[in-house]
Amino acid sequence: MKSIIHKAGTRGHANHGWLDSYHTFSFSGYHDPERIHFGALRVLNDDTVAAGMGFGTHPHDNMEIISIPTSGDLEHRDSMGNIQVIREGDVQVMSAGTGIQHSEKNKNRDQEVKFFQIWVFPNQTNVTPRYAQQFFSAEEKHNQLRTVVSPIGSSDGGVQLHQDAWFSLGNLDKDLTLSYTLKNPDNGVYAFVIEGDVIINEVALNRRDGLGITETDTLNITAATEATLLLMEVPLLK
User: Fold this and answer.
1) What pLDDT band is residue 237 in, cutting at 50, 70 and 90?
2) pTM for the structure as a whole
3) d(CA 47, CA 63)
């Protein structure tokens, strides 16, 4: 097994007033040549958007974009005509493909919205843009790793994207031990601790820490405290 740890405090950080953002990988004004991506995982941003504020209409192409809110209401509008609100429990995937324009705004004027925006390189370029969103209850994720993102055409559940990637979310009780077996042993897994403390293959992680793991087919996970964990299994790009 090989691993790389990204402690929470080493992330890039930009506070624009209306947007407070932490970057696990190089993004915008934050650049670290050692932290460009982990395999097909290109962006992992931890964003807080002030009440009533948001990202104006802007373009994307040839990227799979996943949004996972943890609190508040995020309003999405795009050039395909979608107008949706995503909330805690929702997972959204937008395949930008040949090109799409969208905006993201905090729908509320009295509270922040917090969400993770994640970009994954696609395994096909210039596909027709698409949008998908699904709600996952707390019970579905309690003491198990629930698949929330899987490849197009997969029967593994969750919203689908144009990449051989699987995302899993778990809300774990203290002292729970479980394992994760990779769908493809040639892939890597990037584990991100949303809340709490966990131990993965004997590596201790705390809130907002990230751990990239390669050259293993199984992760052994123990929740040192009550914890919320996101696993992102992705191909390792050459």
Assistant:
1) confident
2) 0.97
3) 19
> Could you give the C-alpha distances from 19 to 15, 22, 67, 97, 108, in angstroms and in order?
6, 10, 16, 26, 15
**C-alpha to C-alpha distance for 223 and 218, rounded to whole angstroms:** 16
CA distance 173 to 197: 11
Host domain of residue 188 = 2-234
CA gyration radius for the chain? 17
Angular region, 197: left φ>0, alpha ψ -120 to 50, beta rest: beta
- The number of residues in the chain equals 238
The number of folded domains in the chain is 1
Structural contact between residues 25 and 46, judged by C-beta atoms closer than 8 angstroms: no
Which pair of structure tokens corresponds to residue 43? 């962006």
Q: State pLDDT tens for residues 16-68.
A: 999 999 999 999 999 999 999 999 999 999 999 999 999 999 999 999 999 99
Dihedral over Cα of 96, 99, 102, 104: its sign: positive
Q: CATH number for the domain including 9?
A: 2.60.120.10
Report the number of secondary-structure helices (H) and strands (E) in the chain: 1, 22
